[in-house]
């Protein structure tokens, strides 16, 4: 496939390596030198775009791909307040988009087991639940998209919580969650690629369910595999739809 990379930072550069290894061609890299002048015509020659840019850029990049009739895989997080709006536009305009807060296989298994765990613990009211995410200090959004997906997975299976709230440790006063609120605690530490933990605590014990990314390779390979999966399809998809264990 001829791939356009929208964003050429930490992720864009790793995605390029995996795309080339899997026999694809990078037909255009959009970075700070050409992004202001980019038009739909510049994308005409490509088969698919992969966007790992930044929260404020994702919506305009998606619009440009739709205008160019170009399927797009969106790994950028921090724009999910607009998800329903983008979904409607995508479907009405007969376009193709796949998005995911996390493309690694490990985290997608984690998403699946997280729901099973929440369902199993739901009858036992003595356990309170909290989500913790740790990322590098350059991250622009909080909570992480992955933490939001984890929290939504728990909210779908528990009777004890009705919404998530976010506390960024060290920013302002510490936020104390009400019993019905699911706290997502965000920590920013040096160059951590991404660590997510779900904690169930009772007076007598604690259950910890944790995923630690050692590097960004799993995210980057997953994004290329997602592009291969989306190519030739029409419609609006989430990365979870690529995995058989979610279809049961
Ligand atoms: N879904 C997943 O599996 C994963 C998602 N992510 C998400 O991907 C995004 C990018 O992460 P990461 O690569 O680490 O971040 P980086 O900051 O390293 O890279 C982002 C790049 O996007 C560029 N950029 C800014 N605006 C635009 C634009 N309008 N068009 C194209 N490029 C633009 C930035 O350029 P400049 O610096 O010049 O402004 C920067 O080079 C984040 O939202 C992150 O949360 C990250 C890892 C995994
Ligand atoms: O910004 C990052 O680095 C990451 N972002 C994604 C997120 O917000 O969940 C995925 C991964 O955790 C790394």
UniProtKB/TrEMBL annotation:
It catalyses: (S)-2,3,4,5-tetrahydrodipicolinate + NADP(+) + H2O = (2S,4S)-4-hydroxy-2,3,4,5-tetrahydrodipicolinate + NADPH + H(+); (S)-2,3,4,5-tetrahydrodipicolinate + NAD(+) + H2O = (2S,4S)-4-hydroxy-2,3,4,5-tetrahydrodipicolinate + NADH + H(+). GO terms for cellular component: cytosol. The active site is at residues 135, 139. NADP(+) binds at residue 32. Pfam families: DapB_C, DapB_N. It is an enzyme of class 1 (oxidoreductase). It is found in: Cytoplasm. Pathway: Amino-acid biosynthesis; L-lysine biosynthesis via DAP pathway; (S)-tetrahydrodipicolinate from L-aspartate: step 4/4. NAD(+) binds at residues 31, 75-77, 100-103. GO terms for biological process: diaminopimelate biosynthetic process; lysine biosynthetic process via diaminopimelate. (S)-2,3,4,5-tetrahydrodipicolinate binds at residues 136, 145-146. Its EC number is 1.17.1.8. InterPro entries: DapB_C, DapB_N, DHDPR_bac, NAD(P)-bd_dom_sf. GO terms for molecular function: 4-hydroxy-tetrahydrodipicolinate reductase; NAD binding; NADP binding; oxidoreductase activity, acting on CH or CH2 groups, NAD or NADP as acceptor. Belongs to the DapB family. Catalyzes the conversion of 4-hydroxy-tetrahydrodipicolinate (HTPA) to tetrahydrodipicolinate. Homotetramer. NCBIfam families: dapB. This is 4-hydroxy-tetrahydrodipicolinate reductase. It comes from Sphingobacterium psychroaquaticum. The lineage of its organism: Bacteria, Pseudomonadati, Bacteroidota, Sphingobacteriia, Sphingobacteriales.
């Amino acid at each position: 496939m001829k791939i356009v990379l929208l964003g050429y930072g930490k992720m864009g550069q790793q995605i390029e390596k995996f795309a080339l290894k899997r026999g694809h061609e990078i037909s255009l890299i959009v970075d700070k030198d050409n992004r202001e002048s980019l038009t739909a015509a510049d994308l005409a020659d490509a088969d698919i775009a992969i966007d790992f840019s930044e929260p404020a850029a994702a919506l305009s990049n998606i619009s440009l791909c739709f205008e160019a009739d170009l399927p797009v895989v969106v790994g950028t997080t921090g724009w999910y307040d607009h998800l329903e709006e983008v979904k409607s536009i995508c479907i009405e305009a007969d376009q193709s988009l796949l998005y995911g807060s996390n493309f690694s296989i490990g985290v997608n298994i984690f998403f699946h087991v997280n729901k099973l765990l929440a369902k199993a613990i739901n009858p036992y009211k003595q356990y309170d639940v909290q989500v913790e995410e740790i990322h590098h200090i350059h991250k622009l959004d909080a909570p992480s998209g992955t933490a939001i997906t984890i929290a939504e997975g728990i909210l779908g299976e528990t009777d004890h919580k009705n919404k998530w709230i976010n506390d960024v440790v060290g920013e302002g006063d510490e936020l104390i969650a009400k019993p019905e609120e699911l706290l997502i605690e965000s920590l920013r530490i040096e160059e951590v690629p991404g660590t997510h933990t779900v904690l169930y605590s009772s007076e007598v014990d604690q259950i910890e369910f944790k995923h630690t990314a050692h590097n960004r390779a799993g995210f980057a390979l997953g994004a290329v595999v997602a592009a291969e999966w989306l190519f030739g399809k029409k419609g609006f998809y989430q990365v979870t739809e690529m995995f058989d264990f979610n279809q049961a």
